[in-house]
Design brief:
Order of helices and strands: HHHHHHH
Radius of gyration: 14 Å
CATH architecture: Orthogonal Bundle
Structural class: mainly alpha
Number of strands: 0
CATH topology: N-utilizing Substance Protein B Homolog, Chain A
Length: 138
């Protein structure tokens, strides 16, 4: 299974957590249910999903702060769609904590936004992530 497909699954899980407003204490169980229901056997995929979901949970406050700090003026995080939030959380985690190549991460995040978000989601996600990368590089 490709990393792109693994990212899509991680996004789906994060999105479901956003919709359900699932507390961190229940996320591990929900992740296990997702893996079981989707019959994911590939150990690398399971490890990726566990790492991404647990890592985002552990760094949630910092990740959300990164999103908030990189929004346009007069924008609040609660105005952002749950889809875009889930995509941004995953991408920020991969860029800041996993140190994955930001061009790959941003490209995949934009593709997720095109597939699942609104018409403006891909440019919005791209803009927020570009600002974060700019801050990291400085």
């Amino acid at each position: 299974m490709s990393r792109t497909e693994s990212r899509r699954m991680a996004f789906e899980i994060l999105y479901s957590f956003e919709i359900q407003k699932l507390p961190i204490s229940e996320q591990k169980e929900q992740l296990e249910i997702y893996i079981e229901n989707n019959e994911i056997q590939d150990k690398k995929v399971v490890e990726y999903l566990e790492d991404a979901i647990n890592g985002i949970s552990e760094n949630e406050k910092e990740i959300v702060k990164n999103i908030s700090d990189n929004l346009a003026k007069n924008w609040q995080i609660d105005r952002i769609s749950k889809i875009d939030i889930a995509i941004l959380k995953l991408a920020i985690y991969e860029i800041l904590y996993k140190k994955l190549p930001y061009k790959v991460v941003i490209n995949e995040a934009v593709e997720l936004a095109k597939a699942y978000g609104e018409d403006s989601s891909s440019s919005f996600v791209n803009g927020v992530l570009a600002n974060i990368v700019k801050d990291v590089e400085e």
